[in-house]
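Risk mitigation, structural track. In case the binding assays with FE3-S4 cluster fail to produce interpretable data, a predicted complex structure has been prepared as a fallback.
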Amino acid sequence: MNEILRLSKPISWLDGIDPSSGKIIQPDHPQRGESIAGKIVVLPYSTGSTVGAYTFFRLVKAGKHPKKIVLEQPDSVTISAELAGIPVEIPMARKAYKPKAEAPEEFLRFLEKEACISGSKEFVRVSSVHISGVSYTTIGDAGLEFLEGVADKGLKVKVKSTINPTGMDLVRWREMGISENYAEKQLRIVRALLRIGAEPSFTCTPYLVGNRPRQGSHVCWGESSAVAFANSVLGARTNREGGVKTVVSAIVGLTPKYGMHLEENRRPDLVVRLEGFLEGKTEFGVLGYYVGKMAPKSVPIYEGISKASEDELKAMGAAGAASGSIELFHVKGITPEASLPCKEGCEAIKVGKKEIKETVELLSTSGSNPDIVVLGCPHLSRRELQEIADLLNGRRVKVSFWIFTSRLVFERNVELCKKIERSGAKVFCDTCMVVCPLRDLGYSVAATDSPKAARYLRTFQGLEVILGEIKSLVSLYTTRS
Ligand code: F3S
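Fallback model:
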């Protein structure tokens, strides 16, 4: 008899399931400890990282995969299980047709299945793709084999395709303490992606390095923080796409039209009234995290924020997509589609200092001294590097102090990065604190300014975490030189 496991709460496939045992490990999940192996798993939808799509390949490789998945609401990350050979169904799925394109039959069949599950009636041509699932830490041997298989077939991307961070700085990986064995696997992943024609961007901020879609354009992006930014700040249209699916769409050039591609789904369904004001970028992230946790699948509109920089919106989107599954948010008077009318029955919540403080406490698991400070989740912009350089001027770091940005932003700001490194801090590119093997490198307590990093450093890397604004982290963990 087929055993059915009905999940009462959404799951994050990246850090909510142990791929070697099939056990639920998500800390706040009511069914934590139960196994999905060999069962028919029924779930509402998934939350969190788009890289979680590769967890299906890892589960299959370990023989711990579910027999079938039944999704209550379509989401591209979970539908990617099909590509790993795990059937995905949705009650009341509609009939769909296969897209017309020159591409491998299995990719076209996958898109047909996604269209069928999502109820989409047509496919849209995408103007760009952002590929997630690039780090060896997150995708493992199963992901490496999938990507090499795609490259070995001689397949090429049809549209501009940028790539998410890898597991190491591709130039200074020895300085990070990365092993030869890890580097060899990571470089194989990189080579496979370059062979299919993807651009060597290695960043979660593709919009800072030339992949900045126009308002209203259809794209297919993985990396949940970049998805939130593309939809909310740029007004482009993308679903939160599973890492594997981004490879498929890059090669086919199409995606089914549903979810965020449709105007009616972009209307707010939750009003978030901010009481008081936000002090700094971390609080923007904390607010996003709180709302993602309270209403994981919502399209919130924030009221009461009088100004917000791109960096602050970037932090807010990243956090809401990590605690929940928020693909799009609006900020009244600031983001491009904030004038869209609210949906009928739209609810309102108030968020003030109390909720912000409680969320910071929830994300900080340790009061003890960190052995590393990590900044740059999402990857830092030039302006953020400048802020850090100013704060570190005339100071020496007391612990390891790693700062992450994209290769292109680094190369355009070499003098600024040298200034930062005079403090003893390191500026690394092509990777980040979450997707490099930080725990294996010997670190156990990390301080960060990013709620998204705080979440994954704890649940994915197993580290203790301290969350604070950059200013306070610099003052606590550096000294005057
Ligand atoms: Fe980017 Fe890594 Fe954070 S990919 S959004 S810096 S977890």
